[in-house]
Amino acid sequence: MLPLLAPHASGQSQPATPRLSFDTASVHETKPGSEEQNSNVPLGPGNVYSPTGGLLVIHNYPLMGLISFAYRMTTGQQSTFADMAPAWVRDTRYSIVARTEKTDVTKDELRLMMRSLLAQRFAMAVHYESRLTPVFAAQLVKPGQPGPRLRPHPADGCSRAIPKEPADGATAAAETIDGGFPAICGGLLMMSSSTPTHFHIGARDVSIVSITSAMASWGDLAKPVVDQTGLAGNYDFAMEFTPKRPDPAPGAPAPPSEGAEPNFLYALRTQLGIKLEAQKQPVEVLLLDRIERLSEN
Fold first, then answer.
1. For tag attachment on the chain, is the N or C end more exposed, with fewer CB atoms within 10 Å?
2. CB distance 281 to 132 below 8 Å
3. Do 205 and 66 share a structural domain?
4. Pair (157, 274) in one structural domain
5. Range of 63's domain?
6. 136 and 58, same domain (yes or no)
7. What is the rounded CA–CA span in Å between residue 247 and residue 23?
8. Cα separation of 2 and 175, whole Å?
C-alpha cells in the first residue's frame, strides 16, 4: 500500500464548528520499546480514508502526531508547535481506541473529535496567530503554465479509499495510473521510484496549497512554503528527485556528485514548473497555551 506523507494541509484559517466528541474513548501510554505503529485511519492531512463504522484505533503514535492529525498541521506549524511543547509531547507514544455512534463519520469529523479528546485527556488548549515569517513563495517558472508533471485534475471519479490487502493468489492493485500518477486520490503519497536513491512523490485531486505547503518537508528547506502560483482548483502531480543527503562524518568519503541527479529544486522547476523565492510573509501558526500529561481514562 502507498504510504501517506505528512504534512500537507490547507494552511488556511479553520472556521468555528460545533464541538464533536467520541462517545467512548480509551487512551493509554505505550510501553517503551514497542516498535509497531499503526492506525486504521490515515493520520496524514489528505482526504484518503476508508470509513470504519465510527471506530478509530491508533497504536504507538507520539502525541505530536495526534495533535498534527487533529489540527491538520502544515510542516511549518508542526515545527513551531513542537519547539514550544514539552519534550514528552514529541517523545511519549500513546494508543487510542475510540468510537462514535455516527457510523458514517467523515475524516474531518474525526479530526474534530480528536481535538475534543486532546482537550479532555491532556487539558490541551491552543490558539492560532499570524506571524511575519521568512518563507519561500512557490511561483510558476512560466506564468500560467504548469510543468509537465503537474496537471489540472480530470473529472475521473477516482477513489479516496485505502485499497484492501489482496487475498492469497490475488493480484495487488496498481500503484499508479497512466502518466505515473498515484492510483488513489485525495492524499500525498510516496510511490516506488526508478532507483533506490530517489524519492517519488505524487497526488491526485488535491489543492495547490496542499502541494506547496508540503514542499518544505520534501526539500528539507527549513522555511515554510506559501502558494503564489495563481493556480486554482485541484491538481494531479508526480515528482521524482534525489533527497538532500546529510553531511558526511569527518573522514568519511564524500557522497557522489548530484550533478546528474534531479535534486529537489531542479526537479521542482523541470517537472512541476515551480520555482521558490525567499520572502517574508504573515503565516498562520498554531500556538500551545496549555497541555498536561494524560489524565485517567
1. C
2. yes
3. no
4. yes
5. 24-131+283-290
6. no
7. 49
8. 7
Closest-CA residue to 70 (of 1, 23, 4, 19): 19
State phi, psi for 268 to the nearest 5 degrees. -60, -45
- Do the domain assignments include residue 100? yes
235 and 96 in a common domain: no
CA dihedral 184→186→188→194, nearest 10 degrees, is 30
**How many structural domains comprise the chain?**
2
In a domain, 248, yes or no: no
* pLDDT score at 54: 96
Q: Which residues of the chain have pLDDT under 50?
A: 1-2, 6-16, 169-173, 247-259
**Among candidate residues 168, 158, 71, 76, the one with its CA nearest the CA of residue 112:** 71
Long-range interactions of 191-198: CB distance < 8 A, separation 24+: 191/2, 191/238, 193/240, 194/240, 197/242, 197/261, 198/240, 198/241, 198/242, 198/243, 198/262
Q: pLDDT, tens digit, for every residue of 56-67?
A: 999 999 999 999
End-to-end CA distance of the chain: 34
Taking the C-alpha atoms of residue 28 and residue 59, their distance in angstroms, rounded to an integer, is: 10
- State the cell numbers at 170: 490475488
Does a structural domain hold residue 35? yes
296 part of a folded domain: no
pLDDT of the residue at 18:
58
pLDDT in tens, 3-24: 555 443 444 444 445 589 999 9
DSSP class per residue in 228-240: -S---SEEEEEEE
Q: Are residues 272 and 141 in the same domain?
A: yes
Q: Are residues 137 and 124 in the same domain?
A: no
Q: Which pLDDT score, from 0 to 100, does residue 278 have?
A: 96
